[in-house]
Each structure stands twice: as C-alpha cells, then as structure tokens.
Automatic annotation (TrEMBL):
Substrate binds at H102. The keyword Transcription does not apply. Keywords: NADP, Oxidoreductase. One of its GO terms (molecular function) is oxidoreductase activity, acting on the CH-OH group of donors, NAD or NADP as acceptor. This is NADP-dependent oxidoreductase domain-containing protein. Belongs to the aldo/keto reductase family. The record marks K69 as: Lowers pKa of active site Tyr. Residues 4-268 form the NADP-dependent oxidoreductase domain. InterPro entries: AKR (IPR020471), Aldo/ket_reductase_CS (IPR018170), NAD(P)_OxRdtase_dom_sf (IPR036812), NADP_OxRdtase_dom (IPR023210). The keyword NADP applies. The active site is at Y38 (proton donor).
Length: 283
C-alpha cells in the first residue's frame, strides 16, 4: 500500500472528481481513498476506467490501490455484503484493494446500545468471507479504539490489517498508534490538517509556525504530513487544487529532524481534540 494517497471526502461533484483523479494519477499518486458515505464512488470508478481505457495508457487497474468503506447505515451480515458488491459495481472493478468498516457504530442507535457490537461483528464476518473470495484483498476498520480492537479478538478469525483514524499533533493518539504497531495493524491517518484548522491563518497550532521557521523549504501542510508519515502512519490528504496535490505528494521526499518532530510532539494533552468523529463513546 502506498504511504500517501488521495483523500476524496466532500468531493461529490463528478466533474471535480474526474479532474482531480486524472491530475493525481499523472503526478504519481497510486492510492485513491473513498467510502460509500462520500457518495463519489461512481465518479471515481468512471474516472479510473477512463484512464485505464485511454489509448497508450501507462496505467492499469493493478497499478492503483483503491480503498473504500462500509457506511454506518449498512452494518450487518447481509447488508455489508450487499454494500461491497454495490461498491464494486460503482468503482467498475472486480476487486477492492482495501475495504474498511467506517465506524464502530450503527446509524441512528444510541452510543450505549449493545446493538453496535452485534452489527460490527456481523459486518466483520461478512468482510472475512469476501476477503477469502478475493472480492476484497485486504480488510480493516476505521475509527476503532483499542477497546474495539481488543473486542475483535473474541470473534475475528482474521484480525484487521488496517485502522484508519484521525491523527495530527492535536490528536496524536500515541497509545492507539503503539497498539497498532505492536499488533501489525497498519495505521492510516486522516484529517492530517485538522480539517484545515491547523493550517495558517488559524492560530490553533502555534507550534507549527515554530517548526515552519526552522524549515523554510517546507510548507505547513508538508510538515503536518511528514509528522504523520514519520509516526509510521500512511496519509491521505484531500485536495481539489492541482498545486496542493503536487505540494502534498512532494512531502514524501523530505524528512523532519528529531528536534522538529519534538516541537509538535510536546503539545500538552489538555489541548488534544478531535476535529472529526470521536468513537470513544460507542460501546
């Protein structure tokens, strides 16, 4: 799996999706991250199919890593299987490289409902079966805490290969990172920019300006991506700007020093927060 990919959350305009996918692939991106909940699988499938079928195309399906995810409203044994087949059709592919359970809970259920566990167990059993059939080539979860992952030991025949979670200097999740690394679970970081709240002109992360002053060769966005990469996480920044796509990809050719990492690592835990979903309360 590539260490950096194209995130596509909030990109629903098919013309924008087509343009961004084409530009990203031309630049060298090889991972496309989507989800049923993003409502853009059809546009991504069309864009990829157009690339693959172009005369003299240098790319084929085997060159691209596609990640998609099960919507919280589709949890359950039969629902999960149907969702995967629906994603396969929309993405115009015979297999999905990585398929994740997007959220440890079920839509429209109270956070303390015991049905969450029942449905995520059923969903996982369905993904295990589809993995054995080759419909999905890797399976994992998203937004799972250590508690949710430990619970899986009671019912999973195959433990998750990936956990995709929010990760940035204000949501560093060191215990979860360590747990995943110890248990051979690849960590994928989303919201590396804190939904843009960590980037200038926002002042939520003044430490970033300190690190940026030391590294005039890097942008603030590149520093945040490198912080994630150097904490052994893959990153999937989203952008519809050609310049930002190029900027994000270029981050993989640099490194932060231990001193620069430490500037962002030493943020007091009282400032830590999620900008996206917080799964802690889902039983």
């Amino acid at each position: 799996m590539p260490s950096i990919g194209l995130g596509t959350w909030q990109q629903r305009d098919s013309s924008v999706v087509h343009r961004v996918v084409h530009q990203a692939l031309e630049m060298g991106y090889r991972l496309i991250d989507t989800a049923t909940a993003y409502r853009n699988e059809t546009a991504i499938g069309e864009a990829l199919n157009h690339v693959f079928t172009q005369e003299n195309s240098q790319l084929s399906r085997e060159d691209i890593w596609i990640t998609s995810k099960l919507s919280p409203r589709q949890q359950g044994l039969e629902q999960a299987e149907a969702a995967v087949y629906e994603s396969l059709e929309k993405l115009c592919t015979d297999y999905i490289d990585l398929y994740l359970i997007h959220w440890p809970g079920v839509s429209k259920k109270s956070p303390d409902s015991p049905e969450h566990r029942k449905y995520r167990e059923e969903s996982w059993k369905s993904l295990e079966r589809l993995y054995k059939q080759g419909k999905v080539r890797a399976i994992g979860v998203s937004n799972y805490t250590i508690r949710h992952l430990e619970e899986m030991r009671e019912y999973a025949e195959i433990m998750p290969m990936v956990n995709q979670c929010e990760l940035h200097p204000l949501c560093p999740q060191p215990e979860l990172l360590q747990y995943c690394q110890k248990n051979d679970i690849v960590f994928i970081a989303y919201a590396s920019f804190g939904e843009s709240e960590l980037l200038p002109p926002s002042t939520q992360l003044p430490e970033l300006s300190v690190a940026a002053a030391r590294r005039p060769d890097l942008t603030c966005a590149q520093i945040l991506l490198l912080w994630g990469l150097q904490h052994n996480a893959a990153v999937i920044p989203k952008s519809s700007s050609e310049d930002h796509l190029r900027e994000n990809l270029a981050a993989t050719r640099q490194l932060l020093s231990s001193e620069e990492l430490e500037i962002l690592d030493k943020i007091d835990y009282t400032r830590h927060r999620h900008f996206c979903w917080n799964p802690e309360k889902i039983v």
